[in-house]
Amino acid sequence: MSSIQTGTYRRQRDHFEPQDIDPQEQRRLRGLLEQIDYAAFVSNREVVGQMLPALTTANFQRLAVMTATARAKWVAEGLRQSESGAPSTPDQIARLTAARTAFDELVEVYDGLRRMVERGYVTVK
Q: Which of 4, 31, 81, 124 counts the highest number of beta carbons within 10 A?
């Protein structure tokens, strides 16, 4: 049985900060980590902004409809396979897996795009 683990669960803070160093060294380390985080932010804003220059709420609406459609197709395929009462064939399982994978990927795209807006990498017009 295959399984897909999605990345929708994100840790808020997963940074290692040693507690056994002196306060001055901790401040220096936090400052360095903030510089690194800022460099990542600027890089993401520039790169993502170039690749996705003109986002609108209509983009989100179309993606949401596409995701909802993929979910409905996945569930409909599962229900269709259950109607016969017979065990699913490998071909049927492959179709069901493909439908679930499409839905899972679209959920990740939607969540990723939303995160990009939250973090200020792109703006929505």
A: 81
pTM of the model: 0.73
Residues 64 and 116 in one domain: yes
Shared-domain flag, residues 84 and 37: no
Q: What number of other Cβ atoms are within 10 A of residue 96's Cβ? A: 17
State which residues form the domain around 102. 54-125
For 5-17, write each residue's pLDDT tens digit: 555 555 555 666 6
Considering the domain architecture, whether residues 46 and 68 belong to the same structural domain is answered as no
d(CA 84, CA 87): 8
Rounded Cα distance between 75 and 85, Å, is 16
Contact 74, 102 (CB under 8 A): yes
Residue-wise pLDDT for 43-67, tens only, equals: 999 999 899 878 999 999 999 999 9
* Count of domains for the chain: 2
- Residue 87 in domain: yes
Amino acid identity at 86: A
